[in-house]
Prior knowledge:
Elements: H1 2-6, H2 8-26, H3 32-38, H4 41-58, H5 61-81, E1 97-104, H6 112-121, E2 126-130, H7 134-144, E3 150-154, E4 162-166, E5 170-178, E6 181-189, E7 195-202, H8 209-226, E8 233-238, H9 246-255, E9 258-259, E10 281-285, E11 289-297, E12 306-313, H10 315-324
Parallel strand pairs: 1-2, 7-8
Antiparallel strand pairs: 1-12, 2-4, 3-4, 5-6, 6-7, 8-10, 9-10, 11-12
Helix pairs in contact: 2-4, 2-5, 4-5, 6-7, 8-9
Amino acid sequence: MQKFIRHNFVNTLLSGLLLLGFTLVIFSPELMFFKWIATYVVHIMFFYLFLGLLFLWLGQKRLMFFSLLGTACLAVFLKTMTNTSMKPAVKNESFPSVKVAHFNVNNSNENFLSTIQIIDSVKADLISVHEITPLWDSLLMENLSDTYPYHFAYPDLGLFGMAIFSKLPLADVDTIRYKEIPNVIGAIALDENTKLNFISSHTLPSLNYSYYERLKEHLAVIARYVNKTDEPILALGDYHTVPWSNEIAEFRNKTGLLDSRRGFTPTFPHGVSTVFEVPVDHIFYSDDLECLSFSTVSSIYTNHLGIQGTFQLKPKKYEDAATAD
């Protein structure tokens, strides 16, 4: 094996393939195969690291160099494309804060009451729930309405059933559509001076190029709504694309929104993950907010049920709102 790899032609060929590999991942062509591969950048980065250690053990310095170079370039790429602020903001009791959670109950495998108990146990102030059927809608209303007196539901037999549950009064709740897909919009009052807007969305995954174009168009619809307001806003839901994708980068550039997820790997409270797990649900927040915490919510029935985050107004925003009042 070592003799084969040491052959000049083979060594040069492998070096070129290593270089080409991470270059195509970072600068993905507009082809669905490469976009699918780029979804697993984290896995590819660790594979390059493994190869670097393997070639070190085999004494193949040139191949080791290109493997570790690929590892470093992919790490820099991920850091650039994701939230680089690894330290969360510090809670200030003087400023209003809100805890927000998003769930997709389709992942719960029809463990209805147990799933609802987990949703309730998060103790969020505002909850977004996706893929609710009429049955889910009835059960959620029955079990959560006492804790969450303010709610809005749009049940559906397909993928696009949505519901909002809030401990705080809801205002301006409505739906805006991208083609047949609803997006729930609305606002809650953080205090007498400030309201927090939100848009909950469920995009379709990029199964082919046509669906990829739909995803970009849907994100553009969300971006236009976000850009209509100068008030604090959250954009949350199942976006079916990873934080380091070009689509999310373009969306964040258009809106100026920040990603609640710090780093680039999915987190699981029970320490369980699958090999091909990637983060595709998000909570984005405007620059006048600070993210105090972010984590994934799971259950004994599924590794991933939803996400949760806590946010507070930035001091200057809160002081300006109080002064204006």
